[in-house]
Amino acid sequence: ILAQVLRAMPRVKTLNSKKPPAGWDDIEDDMEEFTSRMREAVNETHEGKRKNETLWPIHRINWERSRYVYNKFYRDKEISRDLYEYCLKEKYADAALIAKWKKPGFEFLCCLASIDKSSTNFQTTSICRVPLKQRQPGPQLPSVSAGCISCSSQEASRFGGPIWWDSDRPADLVAWAKAGCPTSAYQERAAQKGGGLKRKTEDSDHDGGQAKRAAKLAQEMDEDDGLEERSAALRASMGIE
């Protein structure tokens, strides 16, 4: 566990540390926020949690921070190669994880632990690597090692990243996947962020939040189909063209 925690933390800055390349000022605040969140996750009490469960928030923040840097360079073209490589060298992003994202089928891999066969009882990858449409119906639990429910490419692409243990998600994930992973409004917003900063929400801080989010999501998906019609009717009643 200690090795995984240390690998996820940026290098400690010293007087001899290399000066950041141009453009660092534009992302420094975001990097500091990720670092602050990581420290909170590392220092969070482990009482009442399984050993692997204490690593789930660390894996998630490591993914989000790495994706932030990855998107800034590859997708948005907002940082230079020098700054990108600086972030990798100084461990502001996980270079090994990003290398996996470049391979087909691993575009949204949650963490390296999920493909480490030596960490499972049957020498297989984690359950989160199995597409939801290939699983048995019923509640889908997160992988023990990572806290990820699914980082299969098609399913994760609808969320802009892995489906984590506390992610907003359809109540019946298997049925959703077999229906072709239809995208709702909130999923579009999540995909657009694509690994941006994710602030804490009140629901994610207690056990009952997941059930509330699932119920809200089911209602939202039911309402999406008639949203445009209701909006048009409202504009017409107000005399707005």
Keyword list:
241 residues; mainly alpha; two-stranded antiparallel ribbon
Descriptive report:
This protein is mostly helical and 241 residues long. It is built from 10 helices and 2 strands, in the order H-H-H-H-H-E-H-E-H-H-H-H. It has helices spanning 2-8, 24-43, 56-75, 81-89, 95-101, 153-157, 173-178, 185-193, 209-224, 227-237; strands at 148-150, 163-164. It has a two-stranded antiparallel sheet with strand order 1-2. It is globular. The chain starts with a helix and ends with a helix. Mean pLDDT is 79; it is low at 199-241.
What's the structural blueprint in terms of helices and strands?
Layout: H1 2-8, H2 24-43, H3 56-75, H4 81-89, H5 95-101, E1 148-150, H6 153-157, E2 163-164, H7 173-178, H8 185-193, H9 209-224, H10 227-237
Helix pairs in contact: 2-3
Briefly characterize the structure.
The chain has helices at residues 2-8, 24-43, 56-75, 81-89, 95-101, 153-157, 173-178, 185-193, 209-224, 227-237, and strands spanning 148-150, 163-164.
Shape field: globular
Largest sheet: 2 strands, antiparallel
Radius of gyration: 20 Å
Order of helices and strands: HHHHHEHEHHHH
Q: Regions with pLDDT < 50 over 5+ consecutive residues?
A: 199-241
Give the overall pLDDT as a whole number: 79
Query: Could you say which structural class the secondary elements and strand pairing correspond to?
Result: mainly alpha
